[in-house]
Design goal:
Elements: H1 8-19, H2 23-33, H3 35-40, E1 48-51, E2 55-59, E3 69-73, H4 85-105, E4 110-114, E5 130-135, H5 151-161, H6 165-169, H7 173-178, H8 181-186, H9 189-203, H10 207-217
Antiparallel strand pairs: 1-2, 2-3, 3-5, 4-5
The structure holds zinc ion.
Length: about 220
């Protein structure tokens, strides 16, 4: 990372500069420091295999398996909660199609599609993207070491979340009970958005505040 090459004095100056930036200037600065934004602007070469006006797919330079793709939105977003629903929807549809192609043409029997949100989750690039990883039986790619969490802790988490998550998401419980999962999927998105907005206006909360509340439940 460029920051690591700076002297202490330079780093302090940079921090001061960042503090005084407007949101627009900060966004531009983040883009200028972002390796994926530079790939998207063709300033850094990449092995692009797909592109449209929303995203590109490129081969990972350090692949977990043969055909490992990175699906990158053209706009710079640091983490998933910042990505507009429409963009996210498009990325998932493309991920589905690329996954189908992998299954058909790469002689693989599975695919992993995953997101790392934040450094703690292994995110190394400050630009949201999806990993698409072709998998074969027993390939040991991405084998997660299962951690045993005490039953007591699982119950604590359940108690903390129970009954609060729907509220935080701005979804009414009765609506969920009334509808089957199939019907739920068909519910127009605007309806949910409207409800959320109304509720948020009443409480004077924003989307970000809700996400913070959810995160706090797991602390
Ligand atoms: Zn970027």
């Amino acid at each position: 990372m460029p920051e690591q090459q700076l002297t202490e004095e330079q780093a302090e100056l940079l921090q001061e500069k960042i503090k005084n930036m407007s949101p627009e200037e900060l966004a531009e600065f983040q883009k200028s420091q972002c390796i994926f934004c530079q790939i998207l602007n063709d300033k850094i070469p990449s092995k692009k295999v797909y592109e449209d006006n929303v995203c590109i797919a490129t081969l990972d330079i350090a692949p977990a398996s043969k055909g490992h793709l990175l699906l990158i939105p053209r706009e710079h977003y640091a983490v998933m909660p910042q990505v507009p629903d429409q963009t996210l929807g498009h990325l998932i549809v493309i991920a589905k199609r690329l996954s189908q192609i992998m299954l058909k043409y790469l002689k693989v029997t599975g695919t992993n599609i995953f997101v790392a949100n934040g450094a703690a989750a292994g995110q190394r690039v400050q630009h949201f993207f999806l990993h698409l990883i072709p998998r074969k039986e027993g390939d040991q790619v991405l084998d997660l070491n299962e951690k045993i969490i005490e039953k007591e802790m699982v119950t604590k988490v359940k108690t903390a979340v129970e009954g609060k998550l729907l509220d935080l998401l701005g979804i009414k419980k009765e609506k969920i009970k009334e509808k089957s999962m199939g019907e739920m999927n068909e519910e127009p998105k605007e309806k949910i958005t409207k409800k959320t907005t109304k509720k948020q206006q009443k409480k004077g909360e924003s989307d970000d505040a809700d996400l913070d509340n959810i995160a706090n439940l797991f602390k």
